[in-house]
Amino acid sequence: MKDYIEKRVLDLSNYIADKRATVRQTAKFFGVSKSTVHKDVTERLPGINRGLAREVKRVLEVNKAERHIRGGEATRKKYQKQPESPMKKGGYSKKT
Fold first, then answer.
1. Locations of Basic and acidic residues compositional bias (predicted)?
2. Tens of pLDDT, residues 10-28
3. What is the Rg, in whole angstroms, of the alpha carbon atoms belonging to the chain?
4. In three state form, how does the secondary structure of 52-65 look?
5. What values do phi and psi take at 52, rounded to 5?
6. Do residues 23 and 38 make contact, with C-beta atoms less than 8 angstroms apart?
7. Which is nearest to 60 in space by CA: 13, 28, 7, 10?
8. pLDDT for res 95
9. What is the C-alpha separation between 90 and 60, in angstroms, rounded?
């Protein structure tokens, strides 16, 4: 494995372990794709540092278990920001 890839794997992994970051947050911070982050920490890291790989795996499992909660929160915030729709106000009605 090339040195720069090994350095990237360790940088990504340490960031996830230290910040308890998601794959998406890590990818955005380092300017790489989510696929790159995932491949680096799940396939390449165990060959470099088994202890760190176990820690990162635990963080990713927690993030995966909580993602439905984060998604629901994001949806709730999205609809709280939007003005009330005409349908909710009774502005549009169906003619019978």
1. 66-76
2. 999 999 999 999 999 999 9
3. 20
4. HHHHHHHHHHHHHH
5. -65, -35
6. yes
7. 13
8. 60
9. 45
Q: Which of 74, 73, 47, 46 is nearest to 60 (CA)?
A: 46
Nearest to 52 by CA among 62, 64, 42: 42
DSSP state of 90: T
Q: In whole angstroms, how far apart are CA 43 and each of 20, 76, 89? A: 19, 35, 53
Residues in the chain: 96
Buried b (16+ CB within 10 A) or exposed e, 44-72: bbeeebeebbebbeebbeebeeeeeeeee
pLDDT-above-70 percentage for the chain: 86
Q: Alpha-carbon torsion 14, 15, 17, 22, what sign?
A: negative
Would you state the structure tokens that stand for residue 35, as one six-digit string? 């696929």
